[in-house]
Write a structure and sequence with these properties.
single chain, six-stranded antiparallel sheet, 2 helices, about 15% helix, globular
Length: about 180
């Protein structure tokens, strides 16, 4: 993936529940690292079926934009539908998962674990946190969903539960696109 720079990250989509392949350029011959399921991304540009996305850490890639799951344009307002009253427990679980991962990394670096033991120890860890000022997006692995929090409560932002029967095929877009301005 390429490194992108720019102002703050605000997710517009999430990766489909099964993850998705990604490419360095809008060219099926140039694959890169696949994207994790439900990863929040920002759609920066569209070219036909291709979508140029940016991740919270600044990395960018091209994907089959038809399979991105759109999230609400604006996060739910505090006066909107009731959400989970207290974001504390989910934040605590995220902190525990991060501590567990950090401990495993330290043991691996110190030689106390080999690669297979490290993989076994971290296999079921899932964490996702994006903090942007007073806003936070947290992955809730128990409910398989991303939630948005405004400091007072959490509301569901995106979920990996099937919606409308659409499934990610894992295939690259088949239509190649010409650079803008070319026929």
């Amino acid at each position: 993936m390429s490194r992108a720079t720019g102002p703050g990250f605000r997710p517009t989509h999430v990766v489909p529940p099964r993850g998705m392949p990604a490419w360095e350029t809008p060219d099926p011959a140039r694959p890169t690292v696949p994207l994790d399921p439900l990863l929040p991304v920002q759609l920066v540009e569209r070219r036909g079926d291709w979508g140029h996305i940016r991740c919270a850490n600044g990395w960018a890639a091209w994907v089959d934009g038809r399979h991105l799951v759109a999230v609400p344009e604006d996060p739910p307002a505090a006066e909107g539908p009731a959400g989970t009253a207290d974001p504390g427990p989910l934040l605590a679980r995220a902190a525990e998962a991060l501590a567990d991962y950090r401990s495993a990394v330290e043991e691996l670096a110190a030689g106390g674990l080999d690669g297979e033991e490290f993989a076994d120890r971290t296999r079921d860890l899932r964490i996702g946190v994006v903090v942007d000022g007073e806003s936070v997006w947290l992955y809730d692995p128990e409910e398989s969903r991303w939630v948005y929090g405004d400091g007072r409560r959490l509301t569901t932002y995106a979920t990996d539960r099937a919606v409308g029967g659409a499934e990610d095929t894992g295939h690259a877009p088949t239509r190649l696109v010409a650079p803008e301005g070319e026929p």
